[in-house]
Amino acid sequence: MKHNIIDVKDKVVIITGSASGIGFELAKKYLAYGAKVVLSDLNAGSLHQKVKELKSPNVMSIKADVTEEEEIEDLIAKTKKHFGRVDIFINNAGIQHVDSIESFPTETFDKMIAIMLRASFLSIKHCFPTMKEQKFGRIINIASINGLVGFAGKVAYNAAKHGIIGVTKVAALECAKDGITVNAICPGYIATPLVLNQMADLAKTRNVSVEKVLEEVLYPLIPQKTLIDIDDIASLALFASSPCAKHITGTSLIIDAGYTAQ
Ligand code: NAD
Question: In the annotation, is 33 catalytic?
Fold first, then answer.
């Protein structure tokens, strides 16, 4: 037997938007498997609280707004200074806004593209030199089923997530000979604050009560009739980070309870 299926021991992982939801879940999971984790978020207060919660010498936090190029550069530089390397970079920070195209605020569209698409480009741009020098790297872009199929009311989210999949493919090609893989993870609906907060908006646009959104709007679209287990997203990321995934690159790993199979 050559490898354990999951092996991220001593790897240094940076996770953006990790003071909440999926990002924090990823942090806990990587830590449990022996990685050194950098929690990063815009929100300094919850970042501080989450790091305290983890109580581990293998964790550090760095406040960074992913829309600011210098803050991404600084995040990578501080990580290298503290842990000596950057092995895995997870582009996870994201926000949601639901509105029809006619009433979608243009500044919100620009902001969402900056957080979820432009930031992925920037972090890859600034991680590549280190990863190429190391001859090892794993970049994981948290996309969405909305990077594969459209959803009315989510124009900026869909544009950003479709865009990330394009960035993933190009980046994978540009580092194919350097021991680096770049992949997107496309989750369906997971029970995190991001999804729970959009229930009220969905209720408004679909003209149903908030309580009925799951049953009447989401579940009819989901063959397995369930939200995705957040821990399974973290397991998929760990797998994509492990040695046995070295030939998986430029692809979209879909975990959606059957949503896009239809
Ligand atoms: P969340 O709201 O719980 O967490 C997102 C985090 O991103 C927050 O901590 C927030 O402070 C941070 N953030 C926002 N703007 C930022 C910025 N400019 N710089 C740095 N950090 C910033 O959301 P989540 O559900 O955990 O989503 C995480 C990722 O997963 C997002 O990219 C989202 O699109 C994707 N996703 C979520 C679901 C789901 O069902 N929750 C499904 C598919 C994909």
Answer: no
